[in-house]
């Protein structure tokens, strides 16, 4: 058995392995080679560079571990995943150590991993690799084609943004609620055929926004917020209703979800009132990488 970089022929066996070992209640379809390609492409991830494969007898793929590059010397870990019969033999740790050497040599200094809150064995394993809990996110999902009516309050309009959207002003609003992104990055989102941006206006002023991303049968709510002085007036509900109408009007969509890094009841309450269910929680764990780990491989 040995560890090597990902090859084109690995899409199929890796998809099969994921279906055997990975259970996620927010996913409604089996992993396929085409879906795996699509997900990696949407994440701008080249698996031939960023994924390692554990190859066993007769060329069988028995495990993998990869990462998504992120800004500022960070990465998001994907795996390690090892076939059940080959666990507890040190292969998961070996995959991570080999990948750590690759990441460290490429200037990555901090790596994160996300796990379902029911995955106690996985959490224990990555803790043994030096990861520590950073945050817990909750996922709310809507699996029924709901079209709730939620008219905006007087003086507020909700619209699906088009090419005329002032991206600088839009990102100023986003940055006042979340972290700032580059205007070039927002422009890429706005031009993507898989992305929609909804805005709330009070006259000409932008007071709220919601972004909607489509990937296969899943529509994910992103970057959803309202200025503090316009909260508790129904602006957020009106944005969410507009997004749901668009999501469920898109052919092939069977699930709408939102991932929150908070358990604040006031935030979750809006979703529950609009037909969502609290479905899942994921834990984010992190660890630093040091230049010394580049010698591991």
Radius of gyration: 21 Å
Backbone structural class: alpha+beta
Calculate the mean pLDDT score and round it: 89
Poorly predicted parts? none
Stated plainly, the CATH topology of the largest domain is called Aminopeptidase
Indicate how many domains the architecture comprises.
2
CATH superfamily of the largest domain: Gcn5-related N-acetyltransferase (GNAT)
Biggest sheet strand order reads: 1-2-3-4-5-12-6-11-10-9-8-7
Kindly state the percentage of residues in helix.
25-40%
Number of strands: 12
What is the CATH class designation of the largest domain?
Answer: Alpha Beta
Profile the largest sheet.
12 strands, mixed
Number of helices: 9
Distance between the termini: 16 Å
Characterization of the model:
The protein is built from nine helices and twelve strands. It has 297 residues and is α+β, with helices and mostly antiparallel strands. It folds into two domains: 2-134 and 283-295, 3-Layer(aba) Sandwich (Aminopeptidase); 144-253, 3-Layer(aba) Sandwich (Aminopeptidase), CATH 3.40.630.30. Strands 1-2-3-4-5-12-6-11-10-9-8-7 form a twelve-stranded mixed sheet, sandwiched between helices. Helix 1 (11-21) packs across helix 2 (33-42).
């Amino acid at each position: 058995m040995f560890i090597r970089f990902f090859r084109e022929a690995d899409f199929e066996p890796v998809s099969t392995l994921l279906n055997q070992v990975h259970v996620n209640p927010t996913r409604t379809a089996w992993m396929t080679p085409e879906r795996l390609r699509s997900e990696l492409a949407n994440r701008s991830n080249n698996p031939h560079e960023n994924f390692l494969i554990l190859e066993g007898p007769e060329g069988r793929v028995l495990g993998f571990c990869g990462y998504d590059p992120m800004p500022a010397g960070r990465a998001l870990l994907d795996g390690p995943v090892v076939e059940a019969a080959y666990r507890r033999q040190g292969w998961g740790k070996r995959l991570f150590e080999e990948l750590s050497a690759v990441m460290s040599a490429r200037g990555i200094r901090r790596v994160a991993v996300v796990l379902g809150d029911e995955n106690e064995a996985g959490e224990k394993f990555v803790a043994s690799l030096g990861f520590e809990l950073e945050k817990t996110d909750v996922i709310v999902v809507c699996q029924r084609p709901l079209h709730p009516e939620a008219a905006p309050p007087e003086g507020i309009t909700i619209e699906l943004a088009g090419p005329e959207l002032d991206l600088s002003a839009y990102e100023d609003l986003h940055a006042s609620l979340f972290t700032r992104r580059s205007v070039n990055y927002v422009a890429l989102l706005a031009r993507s055929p898989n992305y929609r941006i909804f805005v709330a206006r009070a006259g000409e002023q932008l007071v709220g926004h919601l972004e909607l991303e489509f990937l296969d049968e899943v529509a994910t709510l992103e970057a959803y917020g309202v200025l503090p002085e316009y909260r508790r007036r129904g602006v957020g509900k009106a944005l969410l209703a507009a997004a749901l109408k668009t999501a469920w009007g898109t052919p092939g969509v069977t699930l709408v979800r939102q991932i929150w890094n908070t358990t604040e009841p006031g935030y979750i309450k809006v979703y529950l009132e609009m037909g969502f269910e609290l479905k899942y929680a994921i834990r984010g764990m992190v660890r630093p990488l040091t230049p010394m780990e580049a010698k591991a491989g």
